[in-house]
Design goal:
Length: 176
C-alpha cells in the first residue's frame, strides 16, 4: 500500500509526495490510496476523494494585457483574466486573442527615436563647431579647418530643418 499525499494548506490540494503505508491503517486526512495521473502541463490535485488534473503554469511568465508587465505565475489553474502567456513585442496591443502590431504606437515610437537621434546629432555638430571656432579664434587652425567649419554649420542647418514629427525622414550626411 502507498499513501499519495497532497498539500491541505493549498486550495488546489496539489500532490506532494508518496510514502509506503501500513496495510492495516487508513490513509491520513491529507492522503489518498489512489495513484495520481501525471501529465505535462498539469498537476494532480485532490478533489472530493479523487485526483483531478489542474492546469499548471507555475514558474512560467505571464504578461498583463494592458501594461505588458511580466509576472511569474505562482498558482495552479488557468492564467488569470487580464494576463496571457504570449510574450508582447515592441509597439503591440492585445486584440483579445493575441498581440498585434499597433501602427499608431509604432509611428509614435519611430518619431521619438528620430527626435532623440537628431538631438544627439545636433549636440555632436555643436561640439565640432565649437572646437573648430576655438581653433580659428586661437589661430591654431589647419588649412582645412575653415572649410570643415562651414560643412558642420551647413550640416547643423540641415538637421534643424528636418521635420522629426514624421515617421519617414532622411538624415544629411555627416561631414568628414
Amino acid at each position: 500500500m502507498i499513501n499519495y499525499y497532497y498539500d491541505n494548506s493549498n486550495d488546489s490540494k496539489p500532490f506532494t509526495h508518496q510514502l509506503e503505508a501500513n496495510d492495516d491503517t487508513l490513509p491520513p486526512d491529507n492522503a489518498l490510496r489512489i495513484a495520481p495521473i501525471f501529465k505535462d502541463g498539469y498537476c494532480p490535485c485532490e478533489q472530493d476523494g479523487k485526483w483531478i488534473l489542474v492546469e499548471d503554469n507555475r514558474e512560467k511568465t505571464a504578461y498583463n494585457i494592458e501594461t505588458k508587465e511580466a509576472v511569474k505565475v505562482d498558482y495552479l489553474g488557468k492564467i488569470k483574466d487580464g494576463f496571457t502567456l504570449l510574450e508582447p513585442f515592441e509597439c503591440c496591443k492585445w486584440n483579445g486573442e493575441k498581440w498585434e502590431l499597433d501602427e499608431e504606437q509604432k509611428s509614435t515610437f519611430i518619431i521619438k527615436q528620430h527626435q532623440l537621434n537628431i538631438a544627439d546629432l545636433l549636440s555632436e555638430a555643436n561640439n565640432e563647431i565649437d572646437i573648430l571656432n576655438d581653433k580659428i579664434e586661437l589661430e591654431i587652425a589647419t588649412d582645412g579647418d575653415e572649410k570643415l567649419l562651414k560643412k558642420w554649420k551647413l550640416y547643423r542647418i540641415q538637421l534643424k530643418s528636418i521635420d522629426a514629427n514624421k515617421p519617414d525622414i532622411e538624415l544629411p550626411i555627416k561631414p568628414v
